[in-house]
Design brief:
Blueprint lengths: L26 H19 L3 H6 L4 H12 L3 H16 L3 H11 L12
Helix pairs in contact: 1-4, 3-4
């Protein structure tokens, strides 16, 4: 005589409908956002001191960018870039949008990275 399949002892949670789904971003979306902010951080590190001063960045971010410009060791520079990304994630949206606009290429008066 065949035995019935074993029952799963864990309670089943009801599936969330799209109306009840949480509005938090997915892990992939958060990672894409973090990578985008790190890319902006790379642009900030490529700026000269005068261009960086014109952006009027928060003090902690400005110091982190200047420190990254001085670093020559690859591992230290990579860690510093991740730290800059973390600081940028903590910025207020208005400051972040101002930095993005200032770094947009083709805009008059835009500080451009020095080769």
């Amino acid at each position: 005589m065949p035995q019935p399949p074993p029952q799963d002892p864990r309670p089943r949670l009801p599936a969330l409908s799209t109306a009840d789904a949480p509005l938090t971003p997915s892990t992939s979306q958060r990672n894409r956002g973090a990578q985008a902010l790190q890319a902006i951080g790379v642009q900030l590190v490529a700026l000269s001191a005068a261009q960086l001063a014109r952006l009027d960045l928060p003090e902690a971010l400005h110091e982190a960018v200047v420190a990254a410009q001085r670093m020559r060791a690859h591992g230290a520079h990579t860690r510093q870039m991740q730290s800059i990304g973390k600081l940028m994630r903590q910025l207020e949206p208005t400051v972040l949008s101002r930095v993005r606009v200032a770094l947009t290429p083709g805009r008059a008066g835009t500080p451009r990275p020095q080769p």
